[in-house]
Amino acid sequence: MAAAQGSPRRRDVLDVLRSAAGPLGVAETAERIGVHPNTVRFHLDALVAEGRVERRTEEPRRAGRRPGPGRPRTVYAPRPGMDRAGVRGYHLLARMLLGELASRGPGARDAAVSTGRTWGRTLVQPQPQPQPQPQPQPLASSSGASSGPSPAAADSADRLVALLGELGFDPVSEGGGRDGPPRRIRLRHCPFLELAEEQGELVCSLHLGLMQGALAALGAPLTASGLDPFATADSCLAHLAAAPAGARAVE
Questions:
Q1: Do residues 117 and 13 share a domain?
Q2: pLDDT at 63
Q3: Are 223 and 244 in contact (CB under 8 A)?
Q4: Does one domain contain both 69 and 120?
Q5: Would 229 be classed as within a structural domain?
Q6: Distance between CA atoms of 169 and 235, rounded to whole angstroms?
Q7: Which domain holds residue 185?
Q8: To the nearest whole percent, how much of the chain has pLDDT over 70?
Q9: Of the residues 58, 78, 98, which one is the last residue of a structural domain?
Q10: pLDDT in the model for residue 213
């Protein structure tokens, strides 16, 4: 899509439509550019599909602008509003916002974690809470061993890994026992790599808070306890641990 939007010929077609006093047909547009109508038709169809041009039907007119005989013709006009195919500056915007956050001094890291938690809670759908059902009491184990890993913990970790994958972190779980949640999540890609290299403490704190917020929204019995930036040359490492008592409620 980006390559198509950057086509010089497509830009010519759009410029002609914008400079015209009214909607133009294929032949008129082609004549003004000096190309074959089929070439213009191809680019007009693409511009309509991209939502940048409107296709309309225009009734034939007699003298005096009264409806006349003949077939309606198809004409094209640019959609009103700013062109969405222009250059984007999101990297600059992110640098500006991180710079403002960094100016808070010692409280910047905590503010980044808090911001990440807030966004993390918005990125997941809370898990439905099952209605409590009476369960038979298990027999006490003579060894005092626990009853095993929590299925809710493993499911929550899976959903966190899926979310991180959707966000572009290329995550992989590590260190989980049989049917239990992973102890670590290795992040093999950073979608904000350049920003992390400039403002690593803040960007990684945002990521840590995001994972904590997502797990809290899921009502998970575990949390992201830490994040090792660039634990290896090509990955970061997030650590999972049991959530503190009372921290599972959705904020």
A1: no
A2: 47
A3: yes
A4: no
A5: yes
A6: 9
A7: 106-127+150-242
A8: 78
A9: 78
A10: 96
Which CATH number characterizes residue 6's domain? 1.10.10.10
Between CA 190 and CA 169 the distance in angstroms is 5
In which element (H, E) is residue 157 found? helix 151-166
Higher pLDDT, 84 or 87: 87
- What is the identity of the amino acid at 33? I
Residue 138 lies in a domain: no
pLDDT band at 250 (very low <50, low <70, confident <90, very high): very low
Average pLDDT over residues 231-240: 95
- Which amino acid is it at 7? S
Residue given tokens 């945002």 in the structure block: 206
> Structural domain tally of the chain?
2
Compute the C-alpha angle 209/153/182, nearest 5°.
Answer: 75
Q: How much is the pTM?
A: 0.67
How many CA atoms lie within 13 Å of 142's alpha carbon, on the beta-carbon side? 0
Composition of the chain by helix, strand, coil, percent to 5: 45, 15, 40
DSSP-based three-state secondary structure for 113: helix
Residue 183 lies in a domain: yes
Least Cα distance to 185 among 149, 151, 157 occurs for: 157
Express each pLDDT in 54-71 by its tens digit: 999 987 765 455 555 668
Question: Can you tell me which residue has the tokens 């049991």?
Answer: 242
Same domain, 51 and 118: no
- Listed residue (202, 203, 208) closest to 241, CA to CA: 208
Q: Inform me whether the pLDDT recorded for 223 exceeds 60.
A: yes
